UniProtKB/TrEMBL annotation:
Superkingdom to which the source organism belongs: Bacteria
One GO term (biological process): cell redox homeostasis
Full protein name: Thiol:disulfide interchange protein
InterPro entries in the cross-refs: Cyt_c_assmbl_TM_dom, DsbD_gamma, DsbDN, Thioredoxin-like_sf
Domain Thiol:disulfide interchange protein DsbD N-terminal intervals: 41-156
UniProt entry keywords in alphabetical sequence: Cytochrome c-type biogenesis, Membrane, Signal, Transmembrane, Transmembrane helix
Record bears the keyword Transmembrane: yes
Ranges where the Cytochrome C biogenesis protein transmembrane domain occurs: 296-509
Membrane topology: Multi-pass membrane protein
Signal peptide start and end residues: 1-32
Species, as recorded: Sphingopyxis fribergensis
GO CC annotations, alphabetized: membrane
A single MF term (Gene Ontology): protein-disulfide reductase activity
Native organism taxonomy: Bacteria, Pseudomonadati, Pseudomonadota, Alphaproteobacteria, Sphingomonadales
Cell compartment(s), UniProt: Membrane
Length: 687
């Protein structure tokens, strides 16, 4: 069979399959039936407010080996449609689809979901609707469910109970819907161009060179533009991604499409007819399925960035513990090597665990970034109690083997003490984002999990390198002071930075929870921890009364349980210089034609606070901004925010700080350095 005949047969089979599927849908009964993809309609708020609305999600759960389809199903599939029965005063927008996958079956391209997915739609309630009105939504949904061997058109009645009310959203529902929103493609704020050239169709997508992409695919929603099954060639020409593939059809005018960037991320965009630049450097030059140049660059940046973290103030209190331990060893080679290796292992293992947790949360749709654990008050409370315990230990209130003295403990407990000190150093280092580290960790957004984990491990290795060198280089170890009476004074002095860390964590907890009732249980838990540890020390010094220890221990556990049950998601607004960041606020600010300065910060980010105090909030800088009419937007990431997380990811970051400068009329922002100076910002504000 020649190529022409084969193409004719393939097109014929596609047409037959599509016609059969449509015919079966038309003839299928209207009543509910057993389906291979289970639908369920849920609402973010069961009481949408008149004059506002809510978001509804149609969750689709395919059975094993079955899949559903994107809005444009490709060569042989089709998306979901709903015939709504909506109450008066209620309007329902079209469903928005998450980023799909490309699946080739029998030479035909399918745009599919082979896992549970959710379609989202906005529901608007007219302001004339009276509170308490029944707004129950119902409809008949039709979709196509397929395996690699058979396709079945399916139909079901879907409904969700709503009643006009105050629009309140339960924290659990907000979290669930944020997870689904994270999987939707983000709209690209600029249009691209497309053109036909012979039997090829070419697209130019405006995408800053700083945006990381991996395994891209262009899903063209508009019909009669491309041959879906044809290979796609991706290259970069400056700030444009050039896509070339085989043409199919005679469609003219604007084209709607979705560019999949990798790892479930995507951008929705419109492409208008126009000139497309020449192809540039190939994008998909990968070995073993990943961009090896990106991997090695990111790994080196993580190691060097971790090394630089040792100079950051957030890590210094923990380094003081290690300095005390090394001084105690008195230059003994064996002890120093054991502790250095244990410290390194603790730092690397903790960095890997944090990185693994971050990747796992992303895999289930959560919008999180580096230092995600400090965005939750319970994690901050746990770290506060730990810092308090270390402070009391350094002051001599009680003794623990990990921090105690004596030759026996140095021999037997040195490895354990070193490991946990390294683990703690890695844990508290995560809020810091020094030079090189932001870009290195940003690479984990597009690398597969097995390639991203070594980068997190590289951060831990870089953090441990100074102590690893001291443990294995005699010349460095010999410069350590010898053990003596000064060590007890040094130990007490080291309680000062650790105590300051405790106070900083208490301030952060207050910032996250406010001054209301939610703060009472954490305060009581910290107070009981103080009593518990202090009396434990008294027992070590000969006090035989055990009841204060039992009572304070019981109250400590009870207060922790109360904290877990009471602490919920807390809304907070930035009180920094500037307006609160949102995508709408950014669009409005750019529309004014004035310069726009956007900075993303968090209360637990010491680098952020240093830049704010030393540069952003300086009187000279604010005067220059006022004179130039600069619009400042502040993205506060203290408690986490999926919109900010996605914005960071779009600029190749998964941590703060991030500073963006939008010059008037510029197509893309300039990413400013992570260390700001007043001169840099005032120069930007000059016309």
């Amino acid at each position: 069979m020649n190529l022409q005949s084969e193409a004719f047969v393939t097109r014929g089979w596609r047409a037959v399959l599509a016609l059969l599927a449509l015919a079966l849908v038309t003839m299928s009964p209207a009543h509910a039936q057993s389906t291979h993809i289970q639908p369920k309609l849920v609402a973010e708020s069961a009481a949408p407010a008149p004059g506002s609305g809510t978001t509804v999600a149609l969750t689709m759960a395919p059975e094993k080996t079955w899949h559903g389809y994107w809005a444009n199903g490709g060569d042989a599939g089709f998306g979901l449609s709903v015939e709504w029965n909506a109450p008066d005063g209620v309007t329902i927008a079209p469903f928005r689809y998450p980023v799909p996958d490309a699946l080739i079956l029998f030479g035909m391209m399918n745009h599919v979901y082979e896992h549970p997915y959710a379609l989202l739609a906005e529901v608007q309630v007219d302001k004339s609707v009276a509170p308490g009105t029944d707004l129950t939504l119902s409809g008949v949904a039709n979709w196509l469910a397929c395996t690699d061997k058979v396709c079945v058109p399916e139909k079901a009645v879907i409904s969700v109970t709503l009643k006009a009310g105050d629009g309140k959203i339960a924290p659990a529902e907000r979290t669930r819907f944020d997870g689904w929103r994270a999987l939707l493609p983000q709209p690209l704020d600029r249009h691209g161009t497309w053109e036909r050239k012979g039997d090829m169709v070419r697209f130019a997508i405006p995408l800053p060179a700083s945006t990381l992409i991996d395994a891209p695919h262009l899903f063209v929603e508009t019909q009669n533009v491309v041959d879906y099954a044809a290979p796609q060639s991706f290259s970069r020409n400056g700030d444009y991604i050039i896509v070339e593939t085989r043409v199919k059809g005679e469609k003219e005018g604007p084209v709607s499409a979705l560019l999949k960037l990798g790892s479930g991320r995507g951008l929705s965009l419109t492409l208008n007819p126009g000139t497309v630049p020449a192809a540039g450097e190939a994008v998909a030059g990968k070995a073993g399925g990943i961009d090896m140049e990106l991997f090695w660059t990111a790994l080196g940046g993580a190691i060097l960035g971790g090394l630089i973290l040792n100079l950051m103030p957030c890590v210094f209190p923990i380094l003081s513990l290690k300095a005390l331990s090394l001084a105690r060893s008195g230059g003994d080679a064996r002890s120093a090597k054991v502790e250095a290796l244990a410290y390194t292992a603790g730092a690397i293992v903790t960095a890997l665990l944090l990185g693994g947790a971050l990747l796992a949360l992303r895999a289930v749709g959560q919008q999180v970034g580096w230092a995600f654990q400090l965005q939750h008050p319970l994690s901050v409370l746990a770290l506060l109690i730990l810092a308090l315990a270390i402070t009391l230990n350094l002051l001599g209130a009680y003794e623990l083997p990990s921090f105690g003295g004596g030759q026996a403990l140095a021999d037997k407990g040195g490895a354990a003490g070193g490991f946990w000190t390294g683990a703690l150093a890695a844990f508290v280092a995560t809020p810091c984002s020094g030079p090189l580290l932001g870009a290195a960790l940003g690479a984990t957004l597009v690398l597969p999990a097995w390639a991203a984990l070594p980068i997190f491990g590289g951060l831990g290795l870089g953090l441990a390198l100074p102590f690893l060198a001291i443990g294995f280089v005699p010349a460095l170890r010999n410069r350590l002071p010898k053990p003596g009476p000064w060590m007890d004074r040094f130990r007490k002095w080291m309680a000062l930075p650790m105590g300051l860390t405790t106070l900083a964590l208490a301030w952060l907890l207050w910032r996250q929870l406010g001054s209301g009732e939610q703060l009472l249980s954490p305060i009581f838990a910290a107070a009981m921890a103080l009593v518990l540890l202090t009396h434990y020390g008294a027992i070590q010094r000969g006090d035989r009364r055990s009841w204060p220890l039992v009572v304070s221990g019981f109250l400590f556990i009870a207060s922790l349980a109360s904290t877990v049950t009471e602490v919920a998601e807390t809304e907070r607004t930035a009180d920094a210089t500037g307006s609160t960041f949102s995508l709408d606020a950014l669009a409005k600010a750019r529309a004014t034609g004035k310069p726009v300065f956007v900075y993303f910060t968090a209360d637990w980010c010491l680098s952020c606070k240093a830049n704010e105090a030393g540069a952003i909030n300086r009187e000279a800088v604010q005067a220059a901004f006022d004179k130039a009419g600069v619009v400042t937007l502040v993205g506060d990431w203290t408690n986490g925010d999926p919109v900010i997380t996605r914005t960071l990811a779009e600029h190749g970051r998964n941590s703060v700080p991030l500073y963006l400068w939008y010059a008037p009329g510029a197509a893309k922002p300039e990413i400013l350095p992570q260390i700001l100076t007043p001169g840099l910002l005032t120069d930007k504000a000059k016309p």
